[in-house]
Amino acid sequence: MSEPAPVLVEKRGGLTVITLNRPDKLNSFNEAQHRALKAAIDAASADGTCRALILTGAGRGFCAGQDLSDRVRPEGGEAPDLGATLDAFYNPLIRAMRAMEKPIIAAVNGVAAGAGANIALACDLVMAAKSAKFIQSFAKIGLIPDSGGTWILPRLIGEARAKALAMLAIPVSAEEAERMGMIYRAVEDAALMSEAIALGEALAAAPTRGLAETKTLIHQAFGAGLDAQLNAERDAQRRLGRSADYAEGVRAFMEKRPACFEGR
Questions:
Q1: For 55-68, what is each residue's pLDDT tens digit?
Q2: CB-CB neighbours of 9 under 10 Å
Q3: Which residue segments constitute the domains of the chain, with CATH numbers given?
Q4: How many percent of the chain have pLDDT more than 70?
Q5: Under 8 Å between Cβ of 157 and 182
Q6: pLDDT at position 69
Q7: What is the DSSP letter of 151?
Q8: What is the CA radius of gyration of the chain?
Q9: Mind listing the pLDDT tens digit for each residue in 215-235?
């Protein structure tokens, strides 16, 4: 019998739902899942009909990070090159997600630990079931938060809390994560996917180019001065002012009707 696909992809009109599919391993990453997820992200990015994504996990967990059964070192064996794993898999994935010109929603349905937590936090909007937990579990095995963890955590929750979560591996509930500004929303478990799909469908019907410019500007604002950011806003607004969606938005406003954006 063949192995189940490590990643499932479902198209729902302009919305693409990508599901990590190793539920017996809490969707922890092996090489096959790494390759399948990156391929799904790249395909969605290149798909002109895709205007928003949801990333979620099958079963009772979102993603427990790296499958450590792939990392057991035999007595006297050679130490693994974890930097090579980051170069080959995690870092290209995070870069692709952050650069994608479409909004990505993380629907965190259970534990998000290690790299799994940071992949969720790299999404544009994070919605989590109230039973979900976020754990920077790296300290428990002598590592640092990777997959962008040392970059994104302090930007979301500040240096003091980021250090505490990273150094102490403290589990954070979805509701606490919402309170501290780590995620967008915590919702009832049974409502997670319906809420995430409704949000995804709303984003898929929105002016895609405007969302892409917004995402880019917010990302670059962390390293930009005010003058540079004002200039970047000017340039983006100039581009968007020439778009079909802006013209439609103005017409719809004047005609007192819902806008019908086409993402161009």
A1: 999 999 999 999 98
A2: 18
A3: 7-204 (3.90.226.10), 208-254 (1.10.12)
A4: 97
A5: yes
A6: 80
A7: H
A8: 19
A9: 999 999 999 999 999 999 999
